[in-house]
Design brief:
two-stranded antiparallel ribbon, alpha/beta, about 1000 residues, 18 strands
Length: about 1000
């Protein structure tokens, strides 16, 4: 029973407090059958006592030792239903000792309640199945097991009996899991796995630790070769061939791998053979995918930052340097061409102009030698007339051949790649590249015979460099240019998932992850019901067609009465910005008063105080090993870790020797073993739930509107996720923290995004990765997250998408009825939506959307799969066509006479900017720069920042709510519309510098600090 706290064990089978009114009316209501059974008892005290036992067993699943030990609200509610005016007479119910037991027997017989012994075997099987498939902890299984018993009308046994049963069965299941995995290993594999925990001679760390850490995330050829060597090392154990995934649930393997990725080698050595070897097996299987992920991330980083970006920069500089010479040479050629055109008028109709005469005319304005030099310069500086685009940067890229020559020889041989029809030719060329690069040619370097290459993969811009211009004699080709041509096309196909690595977790084939076959057929009805999507789209599309047609006509007809909107001759819409609404004096005064009433407080105190309100926050942080922690003052240490990492100051200014909870070694241990995305997500849930119950938060919104936006962070150390962007990061590199917030100001989820990539590729993942709760009904974002494809996906998923449109004049409207007259919006609605595309692809659309909805595939992978270099596939075009219906409706609402729609969008965007402002204040250490080389470190620190932001937001909401209530009690006039415009992100009261104390004032249970006097003199702002 060690997994239950004393309070939890004491509350088992007891009323934790008075039930909510809704629960009273649902569970404690007596229907006709109940009344008939109760009516058989004589005396009001007997009927009331019997009814109390009846409703108690429904609510708790067991009878109370003292049948009268119920909350007063329950007693009064039941008495009122029975018409008993004096409920106190129930005290006479237990005067005869046998009466309650006789009534319990009658209730069990009448309503079919069973003893636990009757279902003991069935319950044990349920616990075993749950433990085997989920790996949930004993506390979770215990809680769900209580629910399982209640659903089946089984009287709960004693808490010790049930807790021991759950613990024993779970332990047996876990040992069976270890045994299955251990049994797959050969004697040689067992020895090799155990050797991973030993430190080889001449090394400072074990092989397991070296593999877990990976290679340094530097974008260079030698680093990628080291990463490929590590891939080969891990694959060399041949554990993938054991088929563990077919015998053990993936989630259980994942749980073991998470522990193995964090546990010390010494801790793993202390485990018995079964657990140790099972953990190592799962960890190495995880490392197989992680090593491939890391290698391909480094390749992506190398291509994007070190090769293409630098080649383009160098080409641009060279272009600028050549520009004066090119201009002069072009002017000379222009003079000669002008003279050539003028020669058409020489002589008569039947008289041909001699070439010598033309040259004589040309040479009067420019010499032949100067003209030849100009022609050479122009030919060298500009691409041929049939080139698809300028190849200057490709020329620069070829000069960096030595950077990639080594990795190209081992990449296709180390990692197994697959490809679809579009990527297959490029993949075949990539696989043949090692032989091409190792061929010893007798031709002058870097030329090789043309028969060695796959000429079909050399596309337009590369042809001039690969085949020569003019073409090399004998059909020779440039080996360096060909290698880069194949590498660039391979890289682009990999990003589009036309080429993929099945061993990877991030670069695998999303097409294979989609629901299909029997699995799709089984889940299809429920998925379509949940998404409210029909089997046949005709009726749905007809309805959308009518809605769009009516909206275009109505909004177009109202434009004349809308002075803020102008449509120019080319159909571009120009909208006057939303004018700021002047704040009434009542709002200004209310905001000033409530802000002044907030107690001055340091961030660590905020975290500890929120922990005292929400014990589930600290309880969410469980050890990676799965065991119950026995560390003293663990919540304080958790608060210290939250403070250090959210402030970005590290442990030095916070840790204290001699104070157990603040020892640096302990803090490091707790952060490494208790902090991970899953625990941070669980810790967020009760914070969001508590704020949602506050009247002030309910005035701010219903919690079903979400805003998604990104914060940029500089990462000044080499990191695979850090990319250059001079606008945001200057001369350094950085990444984006894409996060979602509800309309009450609480963060709901986030994702670490490489560099400043377009947010639309990741936004749907953020929405479907929210920390529990319902999906939002409305999503607001900036223009950077917008695309027709995202519009279509979100609308199909039942979410209304409302991006801010900073580039409104560039937006094109779409229509379905080609012949309709929309007045001033005719030119704007010049796009034609082809509903046939949607109908043709409807079944695939349903499968893609259901796969995202059920979490079978990442939305990012789907969005990537549906596009090729910015151009959608046939399926992507169908989803985008669907999205254009709602994009046009969104624009029409955005520009309509009633500005409430666009003002609501602006308000929540401003709210999120305020949240980011608070985040900047909190994450102030090291100039707000993040010093993590690996994605896991970034995810954990930014997850901590998000959790602390929610703690600060909840704390401020609680105290603002108290301030509003106090002002109302004092007779201060508080208008509802003013209360709704208060912000949870005021932070003048919040201290983040200098003092880090982890002690709370002595407050009574449920009490908060005293509010300040708003009319007193202001202290200095913190």
């Amino acid at each position: 029973m060690e997994f239950l706290t004393d309070d939890e064990a004491a509350a088992y089978g007891r009323f934790a407090g008075p039930p909510a009114q809704a629960d009273l009316e649902r569970v404690f209501f007596l229907d006709d059958e109940d009344r008939a059974l109760v009516g058989q008892r004589r005396g009001e005290h007997m009927r009331l006592g019997f009814a109390l036992q009846l409703v108690t067993v429904r609510w708790l699943g067991t009878f109370l030792e003292d049948p009268l030990d119920v909350p007063g609200a329950v007693l009064e509610f039941v008495a009122e239903q029975l018409g008993v005016e004096d409920a106190s007479q129930v005290k006479r119910y237990a005067e005869r000792r046998e009466t309650p037991f006789d009534h319990q027997r009658d209730i069990r017989r009448a309503y079919g309640w069973k003893d636990f012994t009757d279902v003991d075997g069935e319950f044990t099987a349920w616990v075993a199945a749950r433990s085997w498939t989920s790996g949930d902890g004993p506390k979770v299984i215990f809680t769900d097991g209580v629910g399982w018993l209640r659903e089946r009308k089984v009287l709960l046994p004693g808490v010790t009996v049930l807790a021991r049963r759950v613990a024993r069965v779970r332990d047996d299941t876990t040992k069976r899991l270890w045994g299955v995995l251990e049994g797959l290993l050969t004697v040689g594999q067992r020895y090799v796995l155990d050797q991973l925990l030993e430190v080889p001679p001449g090394s400072r760390v074990s092989d397991l630790e070296r593999w877990r850490k990976g290679v340094a995330p530097r974008a260079s050829g030698p680093t990628i070769i080291k990463a490929l060597d590590q891939v080969a090392e891990i694959d060399g154990l041949e554990l993938a061939e054991l088929g563990a995934e077919a015998l053990v649930p993936q989630r259980r393997l994942g749980e073991l791998a998470k522990y193995g990725m964090r546990a010390d080698a010494s801790a793993l050595r202390r485990h018995g053979d079964g657990r140790r070897l099972a953990t190592l097996l799962a960890t190495v299987r995880h490392l197989e995918g992680k090593s491939v992920d890391d290698t391909l991330e480094l390749l992506d980083l190398l291509m994007a930052t070190e090769l293409l970006n630098k080649a383009q920069t160098a080409a641009n500089k060279e272009k600028v340097r050549k520009h004066p010479k090119l201009a002069k040479a072009s002017a000379r050629l222009a003079v000669a061409v002008q003279a050539l055109f003028e020669s058409d008028g020489w002589g008569g109709e039947d008289e041909e102009v001699r070439v010598a005469e033309v040259w004589e005319a040309i040479e009067t304005v420019i010499s032949r030698a100067d003209l030849r030099a100009a022609l050479v310069l122009v030919n060298d500086s500009v691409p041929p007339a049939d080139a698809a685009d300028p190849d200057d940067w490709r020329t620069e890229l070829v000069g960096r051949y030595t950077t990639v020559s080594g990795l190209l020889k081992v990449l296709p041989e180390t990692i197994a790649f697959g490809a679809n029809a579009e990527g297959a030719p490029v993949l075949e060329a990539m696989k043949a590249l090692p032989d091409v690069l190792s061929y010893r040619s007798r031709l002058a370097a870097p030329l090789i015979p043309g028969r060695l290459i796959a000429a079909g993969v050399v596309n337009g811009p590369w042809k001039r460099l690969v085949f020569g211009h003019p073409a090399h004699s004998g059909g020779a080709v440039n080996r360096h240019a060909y290698a880069f041509c194949v590498l660039e096309r391979f890289w682009r196909a990999l990003k589009r998932r036309e080429i993929y690595a099945d061993a990877s977790t991030k670069w695998r084939n999303p097409q294979a992850e989609l629901l299909e076959g029997v699995q799709w057929a089984a889940i299809r009805p429920d998925a379509l019901t949940a998404l409210s999507l029909p089997d046949d789209p005709d009726a749905l599309l007809a309805e959308h067609s009518r809605t769009l047609d009516a909206a275009l006509k109505e909004v177009g007809g109202r434009l004349i009465a809308n002075p803020d909107v102008r449509v120019d001759g080319s159909g571009k819409i120009h909208l006057t910005g939303v004018k700021a609404v002047e704040e009434p004096p009542s709002l200004v005064d209310l905001r000033a008063r409530t802000t002044a009433m907030l107690p001055r407080v340091e961030l660590p105190e905020v975290i500890l105080e929120v922990m005292s309100w929400v014990p589930e926050l600290a309880q969410a942080f469980t050890a990676v090993s799965g065991g119950r922690s026995r560390l003293k003052d663990l919540p304080v240490s958790i608060a210290v870790c939250l403070t250090a990492h959210s402030l970005n100051v590290g442990y030095r200014p916070i840790a204290k020797k001699g104070v157990e909870a603040l020892e640096r070694s302990r803090l490091s241990h707790i952060y490494q073993n208790y902090f991970r995305p899953e625990t941070l997500s669980l810790a967020n849930l009760p914070l969001v739930a508590m704020q949602a119950n506050l009247p002030l938060a309910q005035a701010w919104g219903g919690g079903l509107v979400a805003a998604v936006d990104g914060m940029r962070f500089v990462v000044p150390v080499p990191a695979a996720f850090a990319r250059p962007n001079r606008k945001y990061f200057g001369s350094k590199r950085g990444m984006t923290w894409l996060n979602a917030m509800n309309d009450r100001g609480m963060g709901r989820g986030a994702k670490v995004v490489s560099g400043t990539i377009r947010d639309s590729l990741h936004m749907v993942d953020v929405i479907f990765g929210l920390d529990g709760g319902d999906l939002p009904e409305i999503v607001v974002s900036d223009t950077g997250s917008y695309s027709d494809l995202v519009f279509g996906l979100l609308e199909l998923l039942g979410i209304s998408y409302r991006p801010a449109l900073a580039d409104l004049p560039d937006q094109k409207g779409w229509r379905i009825n080609a012949s309709a007259d929309y007045g001033p919006l005719n030119t704007f609605a010049r796009g034609k939506i082809d509903l046939r595309k949607i109908r043709r692809n409807w079944e695939d659309i349903l499968r893609v959307v259901a796969s995202i909805y059920t979490g079978t595939v990442r939305a990012y992978d789907v969005v990537t799969m549906l596009q090729r270099d910015g151009h959608p596939t046939a399926l992507g075009e169908a989803i985008a066509s669907y999205g254009r219906i709602f994009k046009t409706l969104h624009i029409l609402q955005f520009i309509d006479v009633d500005e409430t729609y666009r003002r609501d969008i602006k308000d929540i965007r401003n709210l999120q900017e305020n949240r980011h402002s608070l985040a900047r204040k909190i994450c102030h250490g090291k100039k707000g720069e993040l010093y993590h080389r690996y994605e896991r470190g970034l995810e954990n620190q930014l997850g901590v920042l998000g959790l602390v932001l929610n703690c600060a937001t909840l704390w401020t909401t609680v105290y603002l709510d108290a301030a509003v209530r106090q002002l109302k009690a004092q007779g201060y006039p508080v208008r509802d519309e003013d209360m709704a415009r208060l912000s949870p992100f005021v932070h003048s009261h919040l201290g983040v510098h200098g003092t880090y104390t982890f002690a709370l004032p002595d407050l009574a249970p449920g009490a908060i600090r005293d509010l300040r006097d708003p009319d007193a003199g202001e202290d200095d702002e913190i």
